[in-house]
Amino acid sequence: MSDSQDQVAEKISSGRTSLGIEFGSTRIKAVLIDDERNTIATGDYGWQSHLVDGLWSYDVDKIWRGLQSVYADVADCVEAQYGQKLVRIGQIGFSAMMHGYLAFNEDGELLVPFRTWQNTNTSEAHERLSQLFQYNIPERWSIAHLYQAVLNDEPHIGSVRYFTTLAGYVHWKLTGRKVLGVGDASGMFPIDPQTKTYEQDFIEQFDALPEVAAQPWKLEDLLPEPLVAGTPAGELTAEGAALLDPSGVLQSGVALAPPEGDAGTGMVATNSVRRRTGNVSAGTSIFATVVLEHKLSTLRPEVDLVTTPAGDLAGMSHANNFTSDLNAWINLFREFAQLNGGSVSDADLYGELFRSAISEQADPDAGGMLAYPFRTGEFLAGLAEGRPLFVREPEARFNLANFMRAQLFGAFSPVTIGMNVMTHDEGVQIDSLVGHGGIFATPVVAQRILAAAFDTPIRVMTTASEGGAWGMAVLAGYLRHADTPLADYLDDVVFANAQSVTEDPQSADVEGFRMFFARFMQALPVERTAVECMPIGAE
Question: Residue ranges of the Carbohydrate kinase FGGY C-terminal domain (predicted)?
Fold first, then answer.
């Protein structure tokens, strides 16, 4: 091995490493880093939600199968590259898609299939709780799922003794601790940014609801304990080590960071935990988050109020839909290439198609085309269900460049609805906005489209391709540096020498998106009609 490999091998053997594993909507990803935040090994596992009795879910066995798969990828890479078994890890952290509903009885048994954030069957709970608290409780939040089950008088509801998120569930099974990072907890139930724990007044209001008071539990007894970043959150038990690494090589006793949500890891991965900074995390869903200087002036249903991993209030525009429909169209082009004997890599396929969207052949407003990316329901657009839809005017300039521009404009349109409320209606100030996620892997294109949508410069950092798993690994490593405020630690240590590329909004793009977005909103009844006239599963 080279000298540099020897140095990494020594860090691995001495446990100067941190492992982050994030359960995304379509991928489970693991990233092992050293004590200087350099990536040593990665793992990847694909999965997808599916409908169970009309609700989006994931198989529980795939949670553990995916976890073990990505860990095995990391361990195999370490052995292949550095000639040693992965016996020790310094710190571990788990993160996952936020919200949703995993409910358990007193014996720790799952009561109903995992209900993910994609479900929008909780509109009644969202409306009642938002009015009760005068605080936006989105449909996908865990408390909305719990309350909707109460309102529906579901048979399991009296047996609930604990409920949590996906990250909290994995952490609990590996450590025995019923805790949650404060950022992830803020997507279960509102957090008081002063106390860094749940809003006590809201808990009392919730428990006082007649239908809740009739239950054999109190809300506070069901929720995981919220922890700020840097707080020890337990150790990997012997049972947990065997669950993570069935080969039996990994030692127990590893320190674990508070499990976080993908919003928090996105903030960390983009150095966006300080006030007036923000990030756009783009994947199957997309959310734009800005750390606020103060609470919003009034109830804003389009804006979620969550916290950073340090417990500071942040405003989020969250759209359930982003790349699913876009990826489906890309796969169609891949099939066409294969029919003609071509073999195209993802990088080349996405790169060529994306670049066409900003080529000279593309009209600023996408030439009279509209793309609605709604695979699932979308609260921001007032949709309980979704139907991916492409529409064009009879005289639209129907070419590949405009088609791809419409796809990208359409993907970024739902999140723009909530972002406009923050910046236009609430006057939220933003010093920097960083994009991260796979869509930014193709240079320039997504940055330029997003800069047009938000009319603000968009920065992409060199760590953007690592995403949330890398951010979770950084949070795990932060356990050793918790005496320094998280924002300072990120500024002065993690990102001290980070490089980035910024795309400023171009006036033609901004005006083109404005025209597209106006048509997008005006024609939403077409999408609603598609939902009404194309029932899922109809023969």
Answer: 279-478
Q: Output the CA angle 191-108-69, nearest 5 degrees.
A: 85
Give the strand pairing for 179-181 and 225-227. parallel
Entry pTM: 0.82
* Domain that residue 377 falls in: 323-415+507-533
Distance CA 486, CA 372 (A): 38
- Name the domain count of the chain: 4
Tell me what the mean pLDDT of segment 458-463 comes to: 80
What pLDDT digit, counting tens, does each position of 213-240 carry?
999 999 999 999 999 999 999 999 999 9
pLDDT of residue 387: 96
To the nearest whole number, what is the mean pLDDT of the chain? Answer: 94
Sign of the Cα pseudo-torsion (116, 117, 123, 126, in order): positive
Cα torsion 211, 215, 217, 223 to 10°: value is -50
Q: Do 303 and 254 lie in a common domain?
A: no
Cα 259 to Cα 221: distance, rounded to the nearest angstrom: 19
Return the DSSP state at 281.
Answer: E
Q: What is the pLDDT of residues 192-206, one digit of tens each?
A: 999 999 999 999 999
Number of helices (H) and strands (E) in the chain: give both, helices first.
19, 23
Q: How many Å apart are CA 42 and CA 75, to the nearest integer?
A: 9
Residue 434 sits at the vertex; the CA angle it makes with 431 and 437, to the nearest 5 degrees, is 165
Residue 272 domain-assigned (yes or no): yes
If one counts every other C-beta atom within 10 angstroms of the C-beta of residue 46, the result is: 10
**∠ CA 349-355-356 to the nearest 5 degrees?**
95
Residue 384's pLDDT is what?
Answer: 87
Note whether 20 and 30 are within 8 A (CB). yes
Confidence of residue 538 (pLDDT cuts 50, 70, 90): low
SS3 for 261? Answer: strand
Query: In this structure, are residues 389 and 530 in contact, taking their beta carbons and an 8 Å threshold?
Result: yes
d(CA 365, CA 246): 53
Helix pair angle (346-356, 445-454), 10° resolution: 40
Q: How far is CA 213 from the centre of its chain?
A: 33
Residue 112: both structure tokens together: 């109903």
Q: Are residues 409 and 424 in the same domain?
A: no
Quick one: DSSP state of residue 47? -
